[in-house]
Write a structure and sequence with these properties.
Blueprint lengths: L4 E2 L4 H9 L3 E4 L6 E2 L2 E2 L3 H10 L3 E6 L6 H11 L8 E3 H13 L7 E5 L2 H9 L4 E3 L11 H8 L8 E6 L7 H12 L3 E4 L5 E4 L2 E4 L1 H12 L4 E2 L5 H11 L6 E5 L2 H10 L4 E5 L6 H5 L9 E3 L8
Helix pairs in contact: 4-5, 7-8
The chain binds 4-phospho-D-erythronate and magnesium ion (MG).
4-phospho-D-erythronate (DEZ) binds next to strand 11.
Cofactor: Mg(2+)
Pfam families: Hydrolase_6, Hydrolase_like
EC number: 3.1.3.41
Length: 303
């Protein structure tokens, strides 16, 4: 099988590739920016694709922000985007809970291990939640916590689901609460399980890294609703009604973005080398996940 095509500097190859697609699903972290650091040429590349009449959807696994938060981030970084074009893993999890899981009262509350992005999206689907950014949980574990969690008096009886995502305020108390809700039979979901997070041109523990302690204690993996989950692809297709053969997934990570596009039977996948996955990984003999094409950076599409 021919390896992925390298398109940096190949003007004709880029034109030919772009002409095959009407819709681009864009990953964010590691493709458009690294945290709050936008990659040079990102806004111009987005404008170029729009000028060619391409449709864009921003599909991020980063659950720390809601769609509205991302709209603010796009505006702040000067990237032309509409809030309707954002589809994050927090939103994917919220619609999974409201439209598929359908928690029944009284056990219809979600215990959140994550940031405000998850809370906002649960609210947008009228799902009640506890935990998350609750300031009373941002403290050290005390003896009384061991006692009240063990005897159940600290646990809300209406919690029917535990949802974990990237949490920059993880601690033993929140992990213990999440684990004990799972022991009581709560459904275990995750927005995503990425092991690492590209940020500030460096790498940090990702949602999967943060949630690993609860997963280990519980002994079972959560159902993840972010990339590469095809539940997310189906939800995006349900909202945007696109022709998969004329759709391309653009990403920086093989086991989320590129796998998402391949399993989704999209017309193509494009990997950039500004984020998590490396050239060596895609060119390795027998590489399990290989994109159709790759570029050093997104703005190479400008030719
Ligand atoms: O740990 C995480 O949550 C991920 O590293 C981060 O969310 C990736 O975001 P994406 O590249 O999908 O925009
Ligand atoms: Mg990424």
């Amino acid at each position: 099988m021919a390896g992925p095509k390298y398109l940096t500097g190949d003007k004709a190859g880029i034109e030919e590739f772009l002409a095959k697609f009407d819709l681009f699903l864009f990953d964010c972290d590691g493709v458009l920016w690294s945290g709050d650091n936008i990659y040079p040429g990102t806004a111009e590349t987005i404008e170029m694709l729009r000028a060619k009449g391409k449709q864009l959807v921003f599909v991020t696994n980063n659950s720390t922000k809601s769609r509205a938060d991302y709209k603010k981030k796009f505006d702040g970084l000067g990237i032309p985007a509409k809030v309707e074009e954002v589809f994050g893993s927090a939103y994917s999890a919220a619609i999974y809970i409201s439209r598929i899981l359908k928690l029944q009262a009284p056990k219809n509350k979600v215990f959140v291990l994550g940031e405000s992005g998850i809370e906002e999206e649960l609210k947008s689907e009228n799902i009640s939640y506890i935990g998350g950014t609750d300031p009373t949980l941002r403290r050290d574990m005390e003896q009384k916590d061991f006692l009240s969690i063990a005897d159940g008096s600290a646990l809300d009886p209406d919690v029917g689901c535990v949802l974990i995502g990237l949490d920059f305020h993880i601690n033993y108390l929140k992990m213990s609460l999440a684990y004990n809700y799972l022991r009581k039979g709560a459904v275990f979901l995750a927005t995503n399980t990425d092991s690492t997070l590209p940020m500030a041109h460096g790498f940090f523990p990702g949602a999967g890294g943060v949630g690993a302690g609860v997963v280990k204690a519980h002994g079972k993996d959560p159902l993840a609703l972010g990339k590469p989950s095809q539940a997310m692809m189906d939800a995006i297709e349900g909202k945007f009604h696109f022709d998969r053969s004329r759709t391309c997934m653009v990403g920086d990570r093989l086991n989320t973005d590129i796998q998402f596009g391949i399993e989704g039977k999209l017309g193509g996948t494009l990997m950039v080398l500004t984020g998590v996955s490396t050239k060596e990984e895609i060119l390795a003999e027998g590489a399990p996940v290989v994109p159709s094409v790759y570029l050093d950076k997104l703005s190479d599409l400008l030719g």
